């Protein structure tokens, strides 16, 4: 299974290595660097790179390459999924997963990696278990440890490791018992230049923050469970119950976790909450181009569209853009040719617009690519699919918890770290 | 040196890697610590000094300093710096109480032990001790580290530790054992056979925690031993949902392979749809002809697997979803396949790397079964933010999905892609269009026209790619497309990409008859620029010239000659060769002979059109979801997925019988033979070891005993074994005699038993034969012979007490003890490397070394004044007997038992019992015996059946029970001719001990070794009448079978004993402090310790005799 792990930063330095079996020389990463050089973009490095004696499987997150070295046949997704889990754990522990954070906490990182894999096979990846084995570093604890000499390493095997509910620790106690659920939906859509939708999909997740004492057993039911076309669950959810009754029944992990992710079938008509009017033109022979863009809300059930961010990759021939936004601010990067416009909130009475001219390279012919426009936005208190939670019940404990459910719709994400591309408009 | 820690910021510039270390340093303001920052990069001397400092810190008394040093060392390791010279300093801290420090030392050890093998051995004993810690986390981590230290010399110790841990009560420890199996296997593949035994045992484990890890070990060590899975197949299927996600992946992959060997193909009915596997198609056709009347019925086990994996498609873990998908792909009937589609498409919303793998697999699937993914075509539309390799894969899939119905949609989508700013992607799109055009004849013309339009594109790569694709398309139907060729000729001047230019030239030459006017003109132009062209273009110029010379020599003769002359002096030898060849071929002269006659036919031969096909066409030879599939080449360790068997193997092998240990079939029988084999090997090994030393010095005693054995085994065993045994057993004896005092002390335990041996053996052999004949009826003669050989193998050990147990233990079950001498030898070879270096270290095969014994021995070896642990006779034998069977329930037969507190004659690990049977009826009872079937795991030595018990008579018989050092009751059936009565014997903890005597000094020393978790104590208030020394002694020995140690101090009483089964020391001391008394019990068997404590407590607090 996983032989070694190398962490490589954006500038190509190996800043951490960990071996679970015999030491593999870091020169094996040279094959990775070769691939990195060949790739035009950081994302273009192939995830699996064969070398004469090893195979390198890498993931790129937070501008750090996590390169796993393996020696023999193993399902590649196994490794990839694990590496992402490592990143998630780091993020969970240190708040951010950056090179600096990893270096600052190198000992904790090492202890974590030691617990997560044994001989290259995952041992404990459940965050609740890890947190009992190795306490996350906090400023207070660091100070206390320095003074008292106590450690942040647990002495007992976490009870969860052995129980049937490995995701929950025992003896959880809160004075305020609360359970919050966020229904967050994202729209992925491609709209062509005439404004008709090519594809539109809604993906949703229910993220939970559960702080309940003891061993609560929760059930969550929906008003319209049929909307959910394809679901994937946190391991705590009882699948049989869902199959039979379309009810989510589970003993929740303690703290934050993703209960459910779902997909609303594309058969259902997706109402796109925002529209774009645009006019981007270049005249043949002239070094000037016109740029006009107007945004407007549509079908938002009266909810405000917020945090709107428009971005567009302008053609390479564009030297500069001189634009005038009716609200918000815009930036244009003459090197990457990326135009981004931070609109803010859309006011239906006064639609935001961005107008102006672009200067083109003199002598260059009219660019023939069509710039795509990506839009990102948020709508609070609205699940665009219409999904509604019916009720949340708790069994197994006596107290009355505080329950809260929040809805939000936002622009889709294609990669975890990049919330950019929402509505892709092929203009032209 | 001292001041450097003050400001770490300045170092961060140089080596920001150090910042972690520096930050940690700042937090704990240690006076005199040095920054490891800039110094590291500067000089070796600085490096050296820095490590000196770490060494000092490690050797200090302060825990915090040590911890700090370790943290910095871990920082060094993380950066890949060499910290190996600190090994001696670090390894000292391996036994630290501070758990974090200990863990960091473990990290260090695992990293460097391989390089510093000798020093690493120093730490081994710590782990061995920790292996017996009551805290399961500590046991597990000790095993983890011990097995991670890649030092070949400790292989035997690892083996023992694994075997021990495999039977641990904690599933977490057993899981660790499963991981350790793989580590040991990679360290020493020779251990395979024994590891397989452990794997087999662990496969039976019912804990979900263990399942994934042991299957992983199985896959790594013995993936071909599919027979081990049979019995566990259903259990694995049923557990699967509850196994942790990583284990699920491994188990699913394994079960996929398993199912392909065990079930018949479910694809018969609809094999027709399977476009690609023509072979399968024909097979099934034949099949149908043969048994047309018999429709396919899926094996229920096959269905079980499919049913139980289906919910996992909803897992959040992408690897699990992919694993289930591939399982369905390879195992499910084709019409059930569609359920995986949605889940796979869902995975496309995950991370980029996940998309990459999933898309690859979809690409392979979509070639064979378009229908699966067609409804989701839009999910494969390319987004501008996709990485290039994702885009290419999506394109591949879209091309595969294209059919007459959707081609227009796809082509429209492709048009957008061609305009993409990513030119490599645009080029790939053009290729894809070409593919669609050849695959779907309706759109060939449309595509061709579209491509021709692209020729006027401003981007060179796009144009070049179009030319290449057009060339391929034209080859399929050249006659109608002279316009296009002409158009391309016109474009020729503007195209600079060599590949495109070469393609156009080739087209000109190939179809020069369609464009008779243009072709010579192109050649004329090329003659001018020949020297400036790329090699690939030059070759095509030569080709074009040759073809034109043959078709139109009037116009092109001179041109051709000119070009051939240029080519003759070209720098590239390929071009020179080609020129020479062409000249000889086309220009007739005397030397060229017959060949030039055929020149036209050679050069102008009609060429088959290239087939444009997917790069994923042949990927289905690999199992989906594997690394090999991703790379499209076989990765090391790839396990081939076998074809479906034509006829399903016996289904009954998967039947799991209700536990009836004697009547095991199938896999267990096989394992028995393995077992036997390993035994043989064991002995032949030992022969190698000892034979040289001891050849031919057989003593009368041992040879006679072995010949006795050979009677029972002669049918199956080779004669040579005979001498092996005698010589090896002989050598054991003589070596132990000659060697040293310490061994003598061990020997002392034996003589009393040896007397009994021969008689004992006879009985056992009788038993063994019985067992054999039973197993024979089940599993054929092979197993019976192997059975007997294993039987006789273990026989040999009986003087060192393991064999007896194994006898009746028909299940392969861990045996508690092992040949003592062997252990010692191993220890010697471990520590005295020089003396014994050539001796191959053999591992105990059939039996497990009891850890306590091992540590005892270690104690012996390390201290020259070995303590004399001498078994002694019991101080006190209680007369009380316990009821086993009341005469009411026993229909007149009553039975009572009492513990004799004597070493059991039937086996060293057995507790001796006396059974009094009386008949209170008025008829004689016949054939009173204990049933062969034992419902619990205990080993019971039965008394010989009593043929007849007269009315009102009673008889006393003795029996032995191996309680395995636990107070779990032994249940068995007491039978008469007519009836069976279930009875059980519940031993008190004190009866599981045997007294030993030792000196007071030894007692204190042993007690010193068994501290910490091995010690339990309590304070009680004594009743006044108990305070006298006599009463204390009496009370304690009545509760437990312990020996009294003469005490020098008045108020301290000491008692010692060992557990019957494993021989662990049990030390009890009672310290009187008026009016209180402190009872302390030291033993490795902590459970027993605490139980014993409770009983002693009650005994001492109760008044009365």
From TrEMBL, chain A:
Pfam families: Adap_comp_sub, Clat_adaptor_s. Gene3D superfamilies: 3.30.450.60, Mu homology domain, subdomain B. It comes from the Eukaryota. It is a peripheral membrane protein. Residues 176-417 form the MHD domain. Keywords: Cytoplasmic vesicle, Golgi apparatus, Membrane, Protein transport, Transport. Its main location: membrane. This is AP-3 complex subunit mu-2. The lineage of its organism: Eukaryota, Metazoa, Chordata, Craniata, Vertebrata.
